[in-house]
Design a protein that fits this description.
Layout lengths: L8 H7 L2 H7 L19 E5 L5 E4 L3 E2 L7 E2 L8 E6 L6 E6 L5 E6 L9 E4 L4 E5 L10
Antiparallel strand pairs: 1-2, 1-9, 3-4, 4-8, 5-6, 6-7, 7-8
Family: Belongs to the MsrB Met sulfoxide reductase family.
Catalytic activity: L-methionyl-[protein] + [thioredoxin]-disulfide + H2O = L-methionyl-(R)-S-oxide-[protein] + [thioredoxin]-dithiol
EC number: 1.8.4.12
Length: 140
């Protein structure tokens, strides 16, 4: 993985849309069924909207029926970090970008084979890079 990207909240506000900032930096969540990547099936790679860190291959995306884009596995072991989340009166596992620490969504143990995992992500926290296109990481 590339070097960590650490910016102040003021720097993040300048780089991100208000919706991206609310999800990535303030741990917000899109309303179910509203994300732009919910029904997409275009080949390529989903990257972090904050830093372009590669997160998921489009081939691991599946229709979970939850209202958020879902994936069975991350692109690599070091693409994301997983953190115990006890907010909102429940125990969940939060998923963050390993490079910029941006909130992406949560992972649940109720996905399909082969992993049995459901990485339930916010569309606004990601960008789609078409297959064969270069991925350039955002720099400080």
């Amino acid at each position: 993985m590339a070097d960590k990207l650490i910016l102040s909240n003021d720097e993040w506000r300048k780089r991100l849309t208000p919706e991206e900032f609310q999800v990535l930096r303030q741990h917000g969540t899109e309303y179910p069924g509203t994300g732009c990547f919910l029904g997409t099936k275009t080949p390529g790679t989903y990257v972090c909207a904050g830093c372009n860190n590669p997160l998921f291959k489009a081939g691991t995306k599946f229709e979970s029926g939850t209202g958020w884009p879902s994936f069975t596995q991350t692109l690599s072991e070091d693409s994301v970090t997983e953190i115990r989340d006890v907010s909102h009166g429940m125990i969940r596992t939060e998923v963050r970008c390993a490079r910029c620490d941006g909130h992406l969504g949560h992972v649940f143990p109720d996905g399909p084979p082969p992993t049995g995992l459901r990485y339930c992500m916010n569309s606004v926290a990601m960008k789609h890079v078409p297959e064969g296109s270069p991925i350039e990481l955002v720099r400080a």
